[in-house]
Predict the structure.
Amino acid sequence: MNIELISVGYGFEPSRYSPGLGYSRLRVFISSRPAQRVFDVKTLHIPTFDGRFFHQTQVTSHELEPTEAFQVCLGQFSLESYRGEHLQGFSFGGVLNATLDKGELHCELTSNAPIFKLQDTPGALSSVIADEIKDFLAEKQATMSGHEDELYFRLSKYEPYALFLSCLVSLQKRIDSIPMHLRQERVQKLASNLKRAIKIVREADGWDGHAPNLDELLSNGGA
């Protein structure tokens, strides 16, 4: 067992990309009582989908089977400590496996798309991209009769990596629709960060830069 992970309470594993783009996996230890860790995780708040309904799931060491798995949705998650601290993250979906052992819950979030740790630094790549995706999803959700359940039912048909590429394409399309002279600081930051992310993925994965945008995925997902 990783000693540093146990002492800190959580750990993001390095990105498979170079330069780094997000992280490849998140591991978390959740105790039923304070365990004197650097970040003593009490609850993991994470969006999940059970095949029919969307949930803002709160994962604790209580009321869980010895082993459980959750389908994680595209969106923001957070860790809450016993001291009231919060650490925010963002994923494009994946699987959360939770194993209960001697009153302590070992959680592992895996995904074939980058997992972002959201930072307080203004203009950070992960935060800028995540904020724009959240805004985009909120707009789409408002147009659907089933709202969250319908939105995530459609999104659940796609692998996280496909959603990741679709998000990059959708954000680029949004930027391209704004004339240069009307691009405010937020759009300029997004454009710069997005250009960097697309370059990293293209060089590492051999991606040609083309993918269905989110509108297209959501339309096909409703079929």
